[in-house]
Amino acid sequence: NKVIELRSRPVGEPTLSDFNFEETEKPTASDGEILLKTEYVSVDPYLRGRMSDADSYVEPFELDKPISSAIVAKVVSSKNKRFDEGDYITAELDWKEYQLSDGKNVRKIDPNAAPLSANLGILGMTGITAYIGLTEIGQLKEGETLVVSGAAGAVGSVVGQIGKIKGCHVVGIAGSDEKIELLKSKFGFDEGINYKKTEAMGEAIAQASPDGVDVYFDNVAGRISDGVYQNMADFGRIVNCGAIALYNATEMPTGPRVEPMLIKKRVSMQGFIVGDHQDKFTEAVKQLGKWLGEGQLEYSETVVEGFENIPQAFLDLFEGKNKGKMIVKV
Ligand code: NDP
């Protein structure tokens, strides 16, 4: 029974040496328990924060203990009345091939409703983040201009498509020409900017958003965002969802001062954590599922095979190796 633990707290870019690969006994279920076999593992940028012991909104992972993330698993044996052998579930679980659970905070999923992995992406945390961030925090309205960074990723690709469903002009920023092509051909974005080929971000955004930016959905922060800030429209909203460009920084870089712009343009900036909005999850999943069913939403997944490749898949997020949701199939 393979297990992956946090071996050391990464300094700067995490590396494979920050992980322990262990073997343990396969457990057996006692009364009230289920034995779970891991099928799909979600790797997410926010796990980087949990690998550090800095004060945050979630507890840090402990050293020499398993890392956990959202997982889809199969019930292989059950001594819990709520679950039958063969059920599929999703929960925050340890990076273990097999593990026990008492069934608390475990949600059954219907394998016939959508592919199992979709529960970790489009119908899971990242889809929900896109929906709630854009509607509740961004207050996006029909006809507005929406700019999304990290646009070809799990959250960003959904944000842009919801923007199109709402009849907006949508501009995506991502890190390769192939991703820009995907934004336009598969996800229906109006404009795409490859930030790796663009020195003058401000000018590129001005060109792609001639009426100014009403909503900026930010997944990355740093230099890309500095360019967007120069182009905000009056009463614009900035949704601070993620800051992946800064997650491995050992010293915080400073950027241009934005306060005069915020005042002059009456712009608001709001950080948000999807977990604060549990009351909206059911609505979000229902709406995302409806759009999927109607063919109004598309999604991409990058699926890496093999339990032992979970850490590498996580590291690859920081290299932009994923299109859409990064998932490991065990
Ligand atoms: P993604 O699927 O977007 O994967 C990460 C992507 O980030 C990569 O594919 C890469 O794409 C891009 N990236 C990596 N390094 C950099 C960099 N230095 N500068 C610019 N872009 C970079 O991940 P998610 O969709 O899961 O998450 C997106 C963001 O949203 C993350 O910052 C995450 O922490 C945040 N998040 C926040 C939540 C909340 O509640 N606030 C909930 C869920 C996610 P590219 O090729 O374009 O560089």
From TrEMBL:
Keywords: Oxidoreductase
Any GO MF annotation of the entry: oxidoreductase activity, acting on the CH-CH group of donors, NAD or NADP as acceptor
Source taxon at top rank: Bacteria
Keyword ATP-binding (UniProt): no
Keyword Oxidoreductase: yes
SMART domains: PKS_ER (SM00829)
Domain Enoyl reductase (ER): residue ranges: 14-328
A Pfam family assignment: ADH_N_2
Cross-referenced PANTHER family: PROSTAGLANDIN REDUCTASE, PROSTAGLANDIN REDUCTASE 1
Name of this protein: Enoyl reductase (ER) domain-containing protein
Organism of origin: Fodinibius salinus
